[in-house]
Design goal:
With 196 residues, this protein is α+β, with helices and mostly antiparallel strands. The protein contains eight helices and four strands.
Length: 196
């Protein structure tokens, strides 16, 4: 990975462009613009789904922008996890947003929409049944549920009382800050919520 980030020539030969080279980004964007996509159907489905989820206006504007041929996406994703899963999941989402902004600034004739895809069809519940948080004395606090692989995808597993207790335990383990109440409200599951 570090060799990739450093631009190692042997590794770069395996990729269509260097990861931090604006010319590579522009070339990839131009290649993508030349392809045909079912944009109207995509926009309709994304708008319907995101409206069901109560998406904010900015999200709906980004979806609407996908109608235009000079709109591209910066896409990443991850399978679901308790409390968003590992921190790198949040980092991936934030990186997609930052990269979309940077690409838009470098190519004002194009629009870049960040997309985060949640792979909620994932069936590996045991992989998502725990949360690791900083604990006292620099120890790792592991909070775990009894979720096991039972054939259901995450999107079909309701947030049950055990998961709600885990959320309360996680909040209790975190230090009090000016943001704690806002975080608690953000993560508070609705009665019909699932893990996906």
């Amino acid at each position: 990975f570090t060799r990739y980030l450093a631009g190692d020539a042997r590794l770069m030969a395996r990729f269509p462009g260097a990861p931090f080279d604006p010319a590579s980004h522009r070339a990839a964007a131009q290649a993508a613009i030349g392809r045909e996509y079912p944009r109207p159907e995509l926009v309709r489905r994304l708008a319907d789904y995101n409206q069901e989820l109560g998406a904010r206006e900015a999200t709906l504007r980004n979806i609407d922008a996908l109608k235009r041929a000079r709109t591209l996406v910066v896409c990443t994703g991850q399978q679901p996890g308790l409390l968003t899963g590992p921190l790198y999941t949040v980092y991936k989402a934030v990186t997609a947003i930052a990269l979309a902004r940077r690409l838009a600034a470098a190519s004002p004739d194009l629009v870049f929409v960040p997309v985060f895809w949640c792979a909620s069809e994932d069936h590996d519940l045991e992989e998502m049944n725990a949360v690791h948080l900083p604990g006292p004395d620099d120890e790792v606090l592991r909070l775990k549920t009894s979720l096991t692989n039972d054939g259901r995808p995450a999107e079909k597993v309701p947030v049950d009382a055990e998961c709600r207790r885990l959320l309360q335990d996680a909040l209790a383990a975190l230090p009090d800050t000016e943001f704690k109440d806002e975080i608690a409200a953000l993560f508070a599951p609705a009665p019909e919520d699932t893990l996906g």
